[in-house]
Amino acid sequence: MSTRPRLLPWPNAAGRPCYLVTDENSDSPLSQLADEMEAVQLHTASELLGRAGMLLADPTAGEVEMRFLVKRLCEGLRDTLRVAESRGGRLPALSDGEPHDRLDGRSAHEGGSPNE
Questions:
Q1: CB-based contacts of 101, cutoff 8 Å, min separation 6
Q2: For the chain, how are helix, strand and coil distributed in percent, rounded to 5?
Q3: N- to C-terminal Cα distance for the chain?
Q4: What's the whole-model pTM score?
Q5: What is the mean pLDDT of each run of 10 residues along the chain (116 residues)?
């Protein structure tokens, strides 16, 4: 069994976090459902961000539309943060003092700027 529970991308009925404990490399139906839900949540947040840009550029957009936008953006941000927390919790633990790999895929030991 995995010693690290996975934060699922949905809360329970009381609004509290749900966790899944599986074998280390489990490809269970619930794990697959969680992966699919995370993908949908991230895609939805991305689309929402695009629509927000269009609405903000519209000088005729009213208060009702803006309030609706803010509510949806809050939902998208909440979902995205939950996905980030869940995925971060599944990263392999590193020993203290060991540098993390950079987003460009190079080791922190390689140096250089990320844009090189």
A1: 107, 108
A2: 50, 10, 40
A3: 41
A4: 0.70
A5: 79 92 79 94 95 94 94 95 90 61 51 47
Contact 11, 18 (CB under 8 A): yes
Name every residue whose Cβ is closer than 8 Å to that of residue 41 and which is 6 or more positions away in sequence. 9, 76, 79, 80, 82, 83
> Residue 47 corresponds to which tokens in the numbers above?
């689309």
* Torsion sign, CA atoms 94, 4, 43, 14: negative
Tokens of 103: 């987003």
Distance, CA of 88 to CA of 104 (rounded, Å): 17
- Residues 30, 5 contacting (CB under 8 angstroms): no
User: How far apart, in whole angstroms, are the C-alpha atoms of residue 116 and residue 112?
Assistant: 7
